[in-house]
Amino acid sequence: MKAIGFNQPLPASDPQSxxxxxxPTPEYGEQDLLVEVQAIAVNPADTKVRASARPAAxxxxxxxxxxxxxxxxVGERVAGFKPGDQVFYAGAxxxxxxxxxxxxxxxxxxxxxxxxxxxxxxxxLPLTTLTAWETLFDxxxxxxxxxxxxxxxxxxxGAGGVGSMTIQLARALTGLAVIATASRAETVEWVKKIGxxxxxxxxxxxxxxxxxLGLGSPAFVFSTTHTDRYLPDxxxxxxxxxxxxxxxxxxxxDIVPLKSKSLSIHWEFMFTRPLLGTADIAxxxxxxxxAARLAxxxxxxxxxxxxxxxxNAQNLRAAHELLESGRAIGKIVLxxx
Length: 337
Fold this sequence. Notes:
The protein has two domains: 2-126 and 302-335, Medium-chain alcohol dehydrogenases, catalytic domain (Quinone Oxidoreductase, Chain A, domain 1, Alpha-Beta Complex), CATH 3.90.180.10; 145-267, Rossmann fold. It is 29% helix and 23% strand. Helix 3 crosses helix 4, helix 3 (126-139) crosses helix 9 (283-296) and helix 6 runs parallel beside helix 7. It is built from ten helices and 15 strands. Strands 3, 4, 5, 6, 7, 14 and 15 form a seven-stranded mixed beta sheet that branches. By secondary structure, it is of the alpha/beta class. The chain has helices at 44-52, 119-123, 126-139, 161-173, 185-193, 206-212, 227-237, 272-276, 283-296, 313-324, and strands at 2-5, 19-22, 32-42, 67-74, 86-89, 102-106, 110-112, 150-156, 177-181, 198-200, 218-223, 243-246, 264-267, 304-307, 331-335. This is Zinc-type alcohol dehydrogenase-like protein. It comes from Bordetella genomosp. 10. Keywords: Metal-binding, NADP, Oxidoreductase, Zinc.
């Protein structure tokens, strides 16, 4: 089968950073689906692993954690799927990814695609939807009010893939006022388009801008990027006993300033459930099923902003370079072989 992989960490501009391969058909387990990959989306996780991981000598690492595909075969213990079904999923970080014509994926973290979306639009949804959903409802528990706080959330990095889905899910499923950060005219326009009530500039101090909105101190903050830089401002703007979530990887994080307000901080790592085989691993299937329902009802929309052609090494290198530039809006997708 065709696949794209790497065997050493290199800049995306290097032709050897991602290369076209011919690999054997993967084996699949009793809980797995064997999927014919039709479309994929590229995420910051892809670029981080490509730039830092060192596969074992003589082996290739296959990235990719967003896919739409058609089921070719099902494992003995799989229920609810059959060959020919079209599914979408984000996969597991410790298994070969979706940069391949065929992929084995745990059926408990996959779901049938939204009926109303094409494969390119559906491929943009899984990872960011799971991350945003788990952050809002499993980590921040936004349905549990914070006494005295404004029923509001600040989403730092609102125009990125995760920020874009967080805004939409908060609007579709909660009564939260959504305050998104964006710094360029095009990103401000984007976050407004997908539902942000208010937009503030993350190049400027956040706390005065939030105060100027007149809403009061927000109950929740979700930082998708540069959390170490923004944390002092977050501690200032958030309400006492508020809740903070993050997904990025600060080299260090001083949380002592959170003590006086009894603030809580929550890591969200979308791969925790499939990586560790948690008792509630099937919750990811439930989330994707609900996301498909919301998409079919028109309550959320795809965050795909561009398709860079077919799935090959050259196009994937271009996608990685664009993501690493920090100027990408929404999701980048590739489709077909």
